[in-house]
Amino acid sequence: METSKKGGKGIINEPLSEDEGEEEDNKKKRVLSPSGRRASSSAGGSGQRSCQVENCPADMTAAKPYHRRHKACEYHAKAAVVLLAGKLQRFCQQCSRFHELSEFDEAKRSCRRRLAGHNERRRKSSNDS
């Protein structure tokens, strides 16, 4: 048995049993995507095949990649109001997420926070010229 001291506490390292050794080997064999990120648990599996809006029957298998990636069917991505998690929300085109209606100005498709950043960048570039 080895003893090491980290943070002032003595930690005893005991030899692993056969089962524990196999578990440790399996942990090291995590699947990585080509970009080096850990692959999601649904990679290659069935995963969620429907829109995240409540009671939406849309089958996302035939949807465009953008809509599959954000789990929002084309209809609900463009809808002015949807019911999600018991709240009235709208899909933000800038964030690619659903936000509560209070975060939008009137019928705009981008939330105020993202629009503010967008407008600030536009003002900076127009002042430079």
TrEMBL record:
Location relative to the cell: Nucleus
KW Flavoprotein (keyword) present: no
InterPro entries: SBP-like, SBP_dom, SBP_sf
Major place of residence: nucleus
Pfam families: SBP
Keywords: DNA-binding, Metal-binding, Nucleus, Transcription, Transcription regulation, Zinc, Zinc-finger
Residue span(s) of domain SBP-type: 48-125
Molecular function per GO: DNA binding; zinc ion binding
GO cellular component terms, semicolon-separated: nucleus
Superkingdom to which the source organism belongs: Eukaryota
Entry's transmembrane regions: none
Ranges of compositional bias, category Low complexity: 33-43
Name under which the protein is recorded: SBP-type domain-containing protein
Lineage: Eukaryota, Viridiplantae, Streptophyta, Embryophyta, Tracheophyta
